[in-house]
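Structure in, sequence out. Go:
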């Protein structure tokens, strides 16, 4: 938003304060200044002058040789403008001046052999208008030799502020001036509204009816008669132009002036074009079409809030007026609309019809419902002054249920605790009152404050404390001393996650970043969720309990748009309640860091030299083992094939360290995938990073290559389903002699033919010695001994 420093001075005395100080104060107070332009610097070297003589250039038909007099000296200037002529008062750029539009520095040059010193300027070159067909000719009464900053009033500083959506009050000059007044501890001067010199009765001119009071809680109408529509006076045009708006006519310009002054958007109707002299505010029940002021026919969706007259729509509420009631040169009587519309209604309408205006921009963020009548009166007085119109007595004001000021309790102790330092009580009271709050009562270190309706962003005590912090200066908040604590960990958090991310990328995985807020349904799928106190919507009401639900939503979306072959991963935090009791402290829930890897679809696409291959459980295990190997954890982590959370996985894998689960995953059940509209196999694995990164890996030692052959033996047992692979694996290694070097599971089989609640586990055993070649007999003897012990220990049956 652009604000004019000269305009701001109408409401707060900034004389004697440097622009740099104003810019710094605004930025530090949260109204970030993105840029500012000092017109006196831009137009330095541009003065008024007189064209004393004009002759044709001897070497060019379209150029003229002009003698320009600046009040002291004459200058020879080559000019190519067709409208230049002797006797004209013009704007002259002296040598050394920089043209605002082209940024070209004026130098003494020769053009076709004739010397030229300076330039006669057009309005386009000076960025004063869009006319680039000729030079800008000034009024004959213009005094020559004067800087154009004085003559044209180009002595302003234009400040561009980047506002956050929570500060609708600052979308006006008065709003910015209010902050400056409290920052520099000076008085805020508000314009007076004079209700004298009025005639007639507004009830004879307009009747207002609100049918949708939810989306339009207040609607005011102010009438004027016998106005004369014409060009606005220079002072008004200059203010609008400096604030970034194009002047249109005195009526529209006056409404825009008030909007930029106090933040209340207004709209002027031609009163004689309103059927039955009625205004009816209501939302549509059906779709329709409406022609707006820009002569475009727009499709209006059902539920759009419209301003209707007694016969037809006259405006899209809060967005743009209609062509059928616009102000024209023949307009005599007008109605000024000043209303408060629901921000969500205007936001919805603006988005639906793809139309954003200065009015909708303000209504979407929230205007002051209790300033609507004053803004209408202010505009009426300005219009009467510059158009010769007569103000009709009274204001048509429909306000079914007044929006009252919010009351908030403020505690000095709480302010000190949050900010970390003491702000004097007298300074706190000065700040809150200067910002428009009223002190209702004060007792026991507490203030009961009434919050003005132009500050909808101040809802609670913390918001008031934030206001005190930004006005008193964020730079005054004391720095917390940094404490360095050295913990004995295997990996630094950032190093570990960066290395994990790099490894995942190298294996062909693409990273996801999902919202840590979920619906209750998604959060309940993987844990005991923590509810957010003030959720923005039902879709973001709970903290995520795992990474799986978010990952499956991404998979589902990609499949629906035709991207069925996926390798994705995510690193993030999850949150779970420790019990079903209410959460009263951080001890009632836990937060942990996790990483999920998910694959689906084809691993290798079909080609002229390759066969199509799909991702499987084995490819998932291969990826996970590669990650484990990268962190040198392959020798300390053990596999278990009984996965916790069996409501999710049809079968899978668990990685353990000393009986502590480090991660789990597998093939996701089809019935679980149906919750996400997924109809193809999906495999995933989730690491518990807080546990994983704390494991100290053993030092890698070099071993010479094996010199003697290995002997392999395979066996399969039928176990009860309650028997875990990890238990069998540990037992075999404990009972075996030194010749057994490795045990691995290579098959899991379940079938009714094996018996009820039975399953088969098949193992591969690897025997060898570093000293000699083993004989068949000694290996068989060791193998048979293990078969017997496993059968007895687990009541297992050897499969043939």
């Amino acid at each position: 938003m652009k604000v004019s420093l000269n305009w701001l001075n109408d409401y707060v005395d900034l004389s004697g304060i440097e622009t740099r100080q104003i810019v710094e104060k605004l930025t530090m107070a949260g109204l970030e200044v993105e840029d500012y332009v000092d017109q006196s610097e831009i137009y330095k070297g541009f003065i008024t002058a007189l064209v004393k003589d004009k002759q044709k250039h001897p070497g060019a038909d379209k150029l003229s040789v002009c003698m320009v007099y600046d009040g002291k000296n004459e200058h020879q200037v080559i000019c190519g403008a067709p409208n230049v002529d002797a006797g004209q008062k013009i704007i002259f750029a002296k040598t050394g001046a920089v043209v605002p539009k082209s940024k070209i520095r004026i130098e003494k040059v020769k053009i076709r052999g004739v010397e030229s010193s300076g330039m006669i300027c057009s309005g386009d070159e000076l960025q004063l208008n869009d006319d680039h067909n000729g030079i800008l000719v000034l009024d004959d009464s213009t005094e020559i030799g004067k800087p154009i900053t004085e003559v044209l009033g180009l002595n302003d500083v234009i400040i561009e502020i980047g506002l956050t959506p929570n500060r609708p009050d600052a979308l006006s000059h008065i709003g910015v001036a209010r902050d400056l007044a409290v920052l520099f501890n000076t008085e805020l001067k508000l314009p007076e509204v004079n209700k004298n010199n009025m005639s007639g009765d507004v009830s004879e001119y307009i009747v207002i009816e609100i049918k949708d009071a939810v989306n339009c809680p207040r609607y005011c109408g102010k009438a004027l008669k016998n106005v004369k529509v014409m060009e606005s006076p220079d002072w008004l045009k200059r203010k609008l132009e400096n604030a970034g708006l194009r002047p249109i006519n005195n009526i529209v310009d006056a409404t825009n002036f008030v909007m930029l002054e106090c933040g209340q958007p207004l709209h002027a109707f031609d009163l004689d074009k309103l059927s039955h002299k009625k205004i009816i505010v209501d939302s549509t029940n059906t779709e329709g079409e409406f022609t707006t002021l820009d002569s475009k026919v727009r499709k209006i969706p059902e539920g759009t809030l419209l301003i209707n007259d007694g016969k037809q729509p006259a405006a899209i509420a809060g967005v743009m007026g209609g062509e059928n009631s616009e102000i024209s040169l023949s307009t005599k009587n007008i109605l000024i609309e000043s209303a408060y519309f629901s921000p969500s209604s205007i936001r919805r309408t603006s988005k639906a019809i793809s139309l954003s205006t200065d009015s909708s921009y303000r209504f979407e963020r929230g205007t002051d419902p209790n300033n609507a009548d004053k803004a209408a009166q202010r505009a009426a007085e300005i219009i009467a002054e510059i158009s010769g119109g007569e103000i009709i007595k009274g204001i048509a004001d429909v306000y079914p249920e007044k929006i009252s000021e919010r009351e908030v309790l403020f505690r000095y102790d709480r302010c000190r605790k949050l900010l970390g330092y003491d702000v004097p009580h007298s300074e706190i009271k000065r700040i809150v009152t200067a910002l428009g709050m009223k002190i209702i009562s004060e007792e026991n270190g507490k203030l009961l404050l009434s919050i003005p309706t132009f500050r909808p962003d101040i809802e609670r005590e913390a918001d008031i404390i934030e206001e005190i912090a930004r006005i008193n200066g964020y730079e005054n908040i004391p720095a917390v001393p940094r404490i360095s604590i050295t913990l004995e960990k295997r990996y630094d958090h950032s190093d570990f996650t960066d290395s994990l991310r790099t490894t995942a990328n190298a294996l062909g995985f693409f990273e996801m970043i999902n919202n840590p807020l979920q619906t209750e349904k998604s959060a309940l799928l993987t844990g005991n969720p923590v509810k957010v106190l003030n959720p923005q919507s039902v879709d973001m009401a709970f903290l995520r309990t795992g990474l799986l639900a978010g990952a499956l939503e991404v998979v589902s979306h990609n499949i629906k748009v035709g991207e069925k072959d996926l390798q994705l991963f995510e690193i993030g935090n999850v949150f779970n309640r420790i019990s079903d009791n209410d959460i009263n402290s951080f001890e009632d829930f836990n937060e942990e860091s996790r990483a999920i890897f998910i694959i689906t679809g084809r691993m290798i696409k079909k080609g002229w030299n390759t066969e199509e291959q799909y991702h499987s459980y084995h490819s998932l295990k291969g990826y996970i083992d590669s990650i484990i190997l990268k962190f040198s954890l392959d020798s300390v982590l053990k596999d278990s094939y009984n996965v916790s959370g069996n409501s999710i996985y049809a079968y899978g894998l668990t990685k353990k360290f000393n009986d502590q689960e480090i991660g789990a995953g597998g093939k996701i059940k089809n019935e679980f995938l149906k919750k996400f509209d997924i109809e193809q196999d999906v495999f995933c694995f989730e690491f518990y990073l807080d546990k994983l990164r704390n494991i100290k890996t053993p030092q890698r030692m070099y071993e010479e290559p094996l010199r003697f052959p290995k002997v392999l033996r395979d066996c399969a047992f039928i176990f009860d389903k309650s028997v875990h692979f990890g238990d069998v694996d540990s037992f075999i290694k404990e009972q075996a002699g030194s010749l057994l070097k490795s045990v691995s599971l290579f098959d899991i089989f379940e079938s009714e033919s094996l018996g009820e609640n039975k399953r088969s586990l098949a193992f591969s055993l690897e025997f060898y010695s570093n000293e000699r070649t083993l004989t068949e007999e000694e290996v068989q003897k060791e193998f048979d001994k293990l078969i017997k012990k496993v059968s007895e220990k687990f009541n297992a049956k050897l499969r043939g």
